[in-house]
Hints:
The chain is of the alpha+beta class. It is built from 12 helices and 10 strands.
Amino acid sequence: MKTGEAPNSLGFLCVSEQEEQLYLALLRDRDDATGHDPATLTRVLELGIVVRTTSGGLRALSPKRTLERLIEYQVGQLKDGLQETARLNKVAEHLSADGTPAVAPGPLNPVVQQIEGMEAVRSVIDEVTFFAHTENLTTNPVGVLSAESIEISRPIDLRILRRGVRMRTLMASACLQDEKTIAYLRELATRGAEIRISSHPLERMIICDRAVALTPLDPDNTARGALLTREPGLVSTVVSLFERMWAAAQELPEEALPSLTETERRILETLYLVDKDETGARQLNMALRTYRKYVARLMDRLDADNRFQAALRARERGWI
């Protein structure tokens, strides 16, 4: 440990001293875990502050991303614990006007319900996934996820995975051409989700615990709403359709390095090492205007708000 370096500075986020030392070692560009307990390595990978590279090595997230990830993890753990307590104590059922379970069939919850509008559909999705405890199956026939869709889906998806619910997701092959979508899918895969890509037409559906199924009212206009069914025969039919589509799909391909030119790669390296565009352009013997055009394109590809963020994301993805 370096002089003046605080021991176990991440302890308040439930990271042990051994885990923090392994993280710091990898942060200093040591790509192996030699001399560290395997359980410690497993834990930092679980926390998401260290990731495996495509070559099989190890890479630590930047300090800023590490703090964000650890805070997100702890908040998620607390939220999951509270939700599980609420579920086990049937709080939602007790608060229902007639005392019936929130998602069980009954006078207010028939076995087939028509849900009108996207806001109502999102509310139902949040509810049925909250009560899922074994399996969550979904399909996406479009394949491309908007930034808004990812933002809405992330807390739900991560909650499912943190609780140990098996998640299987089928995506149309268009996702392979969209960097934001594929990055999100890889994020879910690193947390335990099973993802397959289909080149065949997909039917849109969400199935929880093979007991509840959600399908669109109009496949060509999902904004209209959805049908929610708990009728065992109908749910079984939807599950069978999902399994057939799943069997015909391919595994999510391994992450590959992007097709960067040598100039783009060198510019990304300067973004990581220097503070000013003028310095970077001078180091590469390039006109400042040309340098800035390259930087703007790379920031767009990395979905970065500033140059420093672009450099961090490039390094975290193994681009440089």
